[in-house]
Amino acid sequence: MKDIDADYYGYRDDDDGILLPLEADEEKRAIAEKVGMWKRQKEESIESGKAAEEEEEEDIYAVDKGVSK
Predict the structure, then answer these.
(1) For 17, which DSSP code?
(2) What is the DSSP letter of 34?
(3) Closest to 42 measured CA to CA, from 34, 53, 51
(4) What's the predicted TM-score (pTM) here?
């Protein structure tokens, strides 16, 4: 048991330099996929005329005049 260290438990798996480039490639792919999906949805909404009819967001900072402190 004396020779068991962090390597035994896998705590230094990121230090070998293999995992980080793989994660970076996967992250770029996932971001590109989501951006492409967003662009397609945006184009579809513009084509269908929904862009001009979008609901106005509720003003979360508006003060209700009927409420007293």
Answers:
(1) S
(2) H
(3) 51
(4) 0.53
